[in-house]
Write a structure and sequence with these properties.
By secondary structure, this protein is α/β, with parallel strands linked by helices. Helix content is 32%, strand content 20%. The strands form 10 sheets. The chain has a 6-stranded mixed β-sheet with strand order 1-8-7-4-2-3. Strand 17, helix 16 and strand 18 form a beta-alpha-beta unit. Helix 18 packs across helix 19 and helix 18 packs parallel to helix 24. It starts with 12 loop residues before the first helix and ends in a 23-residue tail after the last helix.
């Protein structure tokens, strides 16, 4: 309805009828297509986790404003550039919002009048036609601010004919539930109380109470009168007044920056206060430690030999090797390596079981001036050949067990046990620069090719000598990780550089019994345990760790319940969550937890280690505010040299540090945020990389390997569930078991998918990329076509145990544990529970040899062996 003009009727009837006719004539399909293109690939921009939509509370507000002179400059600015005030406000809020969320692609809501300008008489209609529409703002680092505002206005002009579409319909077209939770509005009426004292044709105009209900957590309203007045409205249950005031201050500074220098590039806009920059870049990175020895790893071992020649350096079973003996054996082998052509920057493949010989071999390679390239017996030969070719390795070191496997790799093979007969066991004294290569560690590659990370002596020395390690009173580590796994370097050198003992664990099987045995027999104090294994130990036998002083974990998200369980069982131990990357010498940040410090509900990554700088940056390499998600960059002494023979990839991931002249930083791809206390929290990844049992896996590498299989037309790999089970979706007329066999011949065991599924085609997004979210749910039931039910009570209980551990619906007696997705950690869990449930003497090797219920059930009746009591024993004096 409306008040009256002349003519004796409702003044708005005819315009309203025209409006309805105009609305009916709009092409809804075209409008939806336009919005679909504008919002293609959009990610919602939500300041409040999970979004808020629909809530209605009374908000609070804070104000900011420009001076009269500043407002006049704004008016001249928009006139001179052919802009509107609304475009400038949209641009300012887009820039501020980009800072608040740390992204270069943001979306917010903007109110439009809803009255089509081309419709005669539309302004005379009485009623609320306002519509709220999404504004998508793409920020380009190199674009000048003035150009950015012009582009943004042009993009909005193109949408004028499609402003009638409702927000709910637009969000449905975009395929998201909620696009934004912040809005802007530009008010065009005078900001004066005098307005509300006036009446028009008997209709009184009243002001709207600023405390009216809102549906969005945060909003910006701008009124342009004699002065520009901005109001930041916020929900008091979601934001503090201090936070809202900080947003208002950034809006004011952004307006001033636009007017002061419209030629400023978008990527150079800086809204941090000096105090915030000092805190983020300096205070929380105050990790400098001076006086660290400028030495190589092997040189520091030699110095330790001179201090404690008779102390036990390596202990394996009944054999104990002193520092003097270890050093002499490594020197003898180093001389043989030198004669074989090993020198500075030479790589040597190391294919040995964890043993005394393995420690001797890796130390000898360094003494000869070369770099270790650890290989793993479970790697396919093709992968090892690629690694050796990439690094131009000189030869392969092996032992009696691995010699036959090493002979298949196409390089000269040197047996460690045969090559240490050189008579001269004195130090070689070869000068090696600490910036030289010490190790090359291979990780999964997103392009389908694994990449070798070049680690230097200096980087690894800094990590091993970090002040966070509990070394007082001596440290002994259980060396149980594969030597091809980067943390194994710390397992070996942490004791050797501090006068402790390395205790190699032979064989692939590690159980709670083995850990107890190592603690009791060899006095092990420290273990590095990936979170996957730690979870199994917490579930099966947490007390097995009670004799340890320090347990270091990481490689994935650390569940707080696991740490709490272990602290209850091991109240004297310190648990430390570590974060980092192979490219930063494995460890970069840490967070200690013990009985005196409560375990947080979300275990953080922690704070940076010695001489390490941590930066959380947005898409333009600008520091983000606490609470804002950004990408983690690592700088400092631990940063690796780069990727071996991959100059392009090195340049992409190892970038110049904008905060320290001449320094580099490694772009991790991890999404993190600072807590208010300067502690880092993990959020996710910028790419598809996942962690599988502590190992980095790039689905692209697995997909590349599967695509090479005959008959596979296309392959996509995703990780499902808490156990990160890899699922392969295959297009083509393929035999799934043949593809599985192909994958085992091309990839390490941890990269082979647990489940293979055939699909007719791969779902695509509007941009033509694979829509991983639209892939069908994998079949994890465990049901096979030839299911055979259990025949005995034992088989029935064992089938239930298999199914429970694997997380599947049921298991038949002839189904293989490993073909249903089982792996070494799940095997450890199953064996431990079987030992308890059936009071049986079974091991993981039993399960690997007899992986079906029918086969494994036959082992459960074996009587338990009586083990002799453990006791310390020393080997004969002078044993080598």
């Amino acid at each position: 309805g409306g008040g009256g003009g002349g003519g004796g009727g409702w003044a708005g009837v005819t315009p309203f009828r025209r409006y309805l006719e105009w609305l009916a004539g709009c092409d809804g399909e075209v409008a939806r297509g336009v919005w679909g293109r504008v919002l293609a690939g959009v990610e919602p921009t939500l300041l409040v986790a999970g979004g808020v939509g629909g809530s209605s509370v009374f908000p609070e507000q804070v104000e900011f404003g420009l001076s009269v002179e500043g407002t006049g400059a704004l008016v001249e600015f928009v006139r001179g550039r052919g802009l509107t005030v609304n475009s400038v406000v949209q641009g300012v809020w887009g820039l501020v919002l980009g800072v608040l969320v740390g992204r270069s692609d943001v979306v917010f809501g903007s109110t439009v009048s809803g009255r089509p300008a081309e419709l005669a008489g539309v302004e005379s209609m009485v009623g609320l036609f306002i519509n709220t529409l999404p504004v998508r703002v793409g920020l380009r680092a190199g674009e000048r601010v003035g150009e950015f505002l012009g582009r943004l206005q042009g993009e909005q002009v193109e949408l004028l004919d499609h402003q009638h579409v409702g927000l709910a319909e637009i969000q449905q077209v975009a395929g998201v539930g909620q696009l934004f939770d912040t809005t802007i509005v530009v008010e065009s009426y005078p900001h004066s109380e005098e307005l509300y004292e006036t009446s028009y044709h008997g209709v009184k105009v009243a002001g709207i109470d600023a405390q009216d209900a809102v549906h969005y957590p945060l909003g910006l309203a701008v009124n342009l009168g004699e002065r520009l007045i901005g109001t930041v409205g916020y929900r008091g249950d979601l934001f503090t007044r201090e936070t809202a005031q900080a947003v208002a201050d950034r809006c004011r500074r952004m307006f001033e920056a636009v007017l002061t220098d419209p030629d400023l590039r978008v990527g150079q806009v800086d809204l941090l206060t000096p105090q915030e920059r000092q805190m983020l870049l300096r205070d929380w990175n105050d990790t400098t430690v001076t006086g660290r020895p400028d030495r190589c790893l092997h040189e520091l071992v030699e110095e330790q030999v001179s201090r404690t020649p008779d102390a036990v350096a390596v202990a394996l079973g009944d054999l104990q090797v002193t520092y003097a003996e270890l050093n002499a054996r490594a020197n003898r082998l180093a001389r043989v390596l030198r004669a074989a052509g090993v020198g500075p920057e030479s790589c040597v493949g190391v294919l040995l079981e964890r043993s005394v010989d393995a420690v001797v071999a890796m130390l000898a390679v360094l003494k000869a001036g070369g770099a270790n390239l650890p290989l793993h017996a479970q790697f396919p030969a093709s992968r090892m050949k690629l690694m050796l070719a990439d690094t131009e390795a000189v030869l392969v070191l092996a032992d009696e067990v691995m010699a036959e496997r090493a002979e298949q790799l196409g390089l000269p093979v040197m047996r460690v046990d045969e090559a240490v007969n050189e008579s001269d066991g004195t130090d070689l004294g070869i000068a090696v620069d600490p910036r030289r290569l010490a190790y090359v560690m291979y990780t999964s590659g997103s392009t389908g090719r694994p990449k070798g990370v070049g680690l230097t002596h200096a980087g690894m020395v800094g990590r091993v000598l970090d002040r966070s390690w509990l070394v007082e009173g001596g440290v002994s580590t259980l060396m149980h990780m594969a030597t091809s796994f980067p943390p194994s370097i710390t397992e070996m050198f942490l004791p050797l550089l501090t006068g402790g003992t390395v205790v190699p664990h032979p064989g692939a099987e590690l159980t709670a019994r083995h850990i107890r045995q190592a603690v009791e027999r060899h006095g092990v104090t420290t273990m590095m345990i990936p979170i996957g294994l730690l979870r199994v130990l917490a579930e099966t036998d947490p007390a097995c760790l009670s004799g340890l002083r320090e347990i270091v974990t990481g490689g994935d998200v650390v569940p707080p319940a696991v740490i709490r369980t272990l602290l209850d069982a091991c109240p004297k131990a310190t648990f430390r969550s570590h974060g980092g990357a192979t490219e930063a010498s494995s460890y970069a940040v840490h967070h200690p937890m013990d009985a005196t410090r409560p375990v947080p509900d979300s275990v953080p990554l922690g704070r940076p280690m010695d001489n390490t700088q941590v930066f959380v940056l947005d898409d333009f390499l600008r520091p983000v505010l606490p609470g804002v998600v950004g990408e983690l960059y690592l700088a400092g002494s631990g940063v690796a040299r780069g990727y071996v023979d991959r100059a392009g990839l090195t340049a992409e991931r190892f970038v110049a540090c904008p905060f320290e002249v001449g320094e580099r930083m490694y772009r991790t791809g991890d999404l993190v945020r600072w807590g208010a206390d300067g502690v880092l929290e993990f959020v996710g990844r910028v790419d598809d990389q996942v962690k599988v049992r502590g190992f980095r896996v790039e689905p692209g590498e697995v997909e590349h390997a599967l695509a090479g299989c005959p008959e596979v037309e296309a392959a996509v790999v995703v990780a499902h569930g808490e156990e990160r089970r890899l699922v392969a979706y295959l297009v083509g007329q393929v035999e799934l078991e043949a593809v599985r066999a192909w994958a085992r011949g091309m990839l390490p065991e941890y990269m082979v998918p647990s489940v293979f599924m055939r699909v007719d085609s791969l779902p695509l997004t509007v941009n033509g990329k694979v829509d991983r979210r639209a892939l069908p749910e994998p079949d994890l039931t465990g049901v096979t076509g030839d299911y055979v039910a259990p025949r005995t009570a034992t088989e029935e209980r064992l089938c239930e145990l298999f199914a429970d551990v694997l997380g599947v619906e049921r298991v038949g007696i002839h189904d293989s544990f490993f073909e249903l997705g089982g792996h070494s950690l799940l095997a450890m869990r199953l064996v431990s529970r079987a030992q308890t449930k059936f009071e049986a003497e079974v091991s993981m090797s039993d399960l690997f040899g007899k992986p079906t219920v029918a086969e494994f059930a036959g082992l459960l009746s074996r009587p338990r062996k009586q083990r002799p009591p453990l006791r310390r024993r020393t080997d004969p004096k002078g044993a080598q």
